[in-house]
């Protein structure tokens, strides 16, 4: 799953030459929602929940210890993000081109152990790419080591339990060979494998009718967008909360279409993002009181991920954002990853129920800079 990020439709006449590689950096918000890949590492501590896609994908490079100094001693200067000893589950990573991947890298760089949930139909491709080293360049961290994914789980967050899965999905060849991929089953597998987690990241969204105006969106398409893009977060937190350690944190990804009209961002996706932000506030109270878990969401700017291209005009969104943001630069996926690492760290221990904008300040603007009414 990913997330659809949008800026606006207007093209700009002046923007710097930005390479395709930069523009294709990473995003967590594209249009496809689910995500899962089978186990990439087999723990010797507890038995794993088995699926027929059980090939081992262990990476030998070490997870970076962001807090350790060259001498191996503790106590580096500054105010570092320290996630050593923490375990993160990131739902919605199916390639190395989205916000989910960028968040995984940032958390790994801070010392967290990374577990990933990948949409079942994308599982085989993602797993094969990892095994063959196609993502090695993207896995490289600032210190030269490679991000290690401890384990990849098949996941389809549209279904809470096996009983919820319709027959046509059960018999779909895209799901054949995989098991234990509903939300409840994945959480049970994580519990059996590792006991608990500290961090939950929701990087999922899907709007099957996202290219349709809201007035032309069917009930089925609207409810599908809500289910995959907002309720999936409620379900994941609901099921993971019992195995989350007190003091943990959860984050999701939203977009400014939740509060402003973005023509072209249709199919009920704007409604789903509005629901996600409202749920963030309610869940912050409920999860805070019940499990001492913080809940926040990041409103990220447009990013040219593969999934985001499903909305059809992501390049125009990026152009508009560049031309009209207070910080006139292209948004990088790593910047969203860094914000996420801060929000789930002890440095943000008093921040919960918040929408944090990481969009170069575009959300603050009420007028396009090339508007004829603008005199500055």
Give me a quick take on this structure:
This protein is of the alpha/beta class.
What sort of overall outline do the alpha carbons produce when their principal axes are compared? globular
**What number is the mean pLDDT?**
82
Strand order of the largest sheet: 3-2-1-4-5-6-7
End-to-end C-alpha gap: 41 Å
Main pleated sheet: 7 strands, parallel
What helical percentage do the residues reach?
Answer: 25-40%
User: What is the helix tally?
Assistant: 10
Low-confidence stretches: 1-73
Number of strands: 7
Structural class: alpha/beta
- What is the beta-strand fraction? 5-15%
Q: Provide the succession of SSEs.
A: HEHEHHEHHEHEHEHHE
State Rg: 20 Å
Overview of the molecule:
The chain has 376 residues and is of the alpha/beta class. The chain is globular. The N terminus is likely disordered. It starts with 19 loop residues before the first helix and ends in an 18-residue tail after the last strand. A 7-stranded parallel β-sheet has the order 3-2-1-4-5-6-7, sandwiched between helices.
């Amino acid at each position: 799953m990913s997330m659809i990020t949008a800026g606006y439709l207007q093209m700009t006449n002046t923007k710097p030459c930005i390479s395709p590689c930069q523009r294709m950096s990473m995003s967590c918000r594209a249009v496809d929602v689910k995500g899962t890949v089978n186990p990439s590492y087999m723990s010797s501590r507890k038995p794993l929940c088995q699926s027929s896609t059980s090939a081992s994908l262990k990476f030998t490079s070490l997870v970076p210890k962001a807090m350790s100094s060259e001498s191996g001693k503790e106590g580096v200067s500054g105010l570092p993000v320290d996630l050593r000893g923490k375990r993160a589950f990131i739902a919605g990573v199916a390639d190395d081109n989205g916000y989910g991947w960028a968040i995984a890298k940032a958390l790994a760089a801070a010392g967290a152990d990374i577990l990933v949930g990948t949409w079942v139909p994308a599982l085989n491709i993602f797993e094969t790419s990892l095994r063959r080293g196609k993502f090695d360049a993207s896995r490289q961290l600032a210190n030269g080591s490679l991000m290690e994914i401890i384990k990849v789980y098949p996941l389809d967050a549209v279904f809470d339990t096996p009983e919820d899965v319709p027959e046509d999905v059960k018999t779909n060849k895209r799901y054949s060979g995989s098991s234990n991929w509903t939300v409840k089953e994945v959480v049970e597998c994580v519990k059996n494998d590792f006991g608990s987690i500290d961090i939950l990241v929701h990087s999922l969204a899907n709007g099957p009718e996202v290219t349709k105006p809201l007035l032309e969106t069917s009930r089925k398409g609207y409810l599908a967008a809500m289910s995959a893009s907002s309720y999936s977060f409620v379900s994941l937190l609901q099921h993971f909360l019992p195995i989350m350690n007190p003091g943990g944190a959860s984050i999701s990804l939203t977009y400014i279409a939740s509060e402003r009209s973005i023509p072209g961002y249709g199919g009920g996706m704007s409604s789903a993002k509005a629901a996600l932000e409202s749920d963030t506030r309610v869940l912050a109270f409920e999860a805070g009181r019940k499990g001492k878990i913080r809940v926040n969401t990041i409103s990220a700017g447009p990013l040219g991920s593969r999934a985001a291209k499903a909305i059809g005009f992501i390049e125009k969104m990026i152009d508009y954002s560049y031309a009209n943001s207070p910080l006139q630069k292209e948004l990088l996926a790593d910047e969203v990853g860094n914000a996420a690492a801060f929000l789930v760290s002890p440095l943000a221990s008093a921040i919960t129920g918040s929408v944090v904008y990481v969009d170069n300040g575009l959300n603050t603007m009420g007028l396009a800079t090339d508007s004829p009414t603008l005199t500055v």
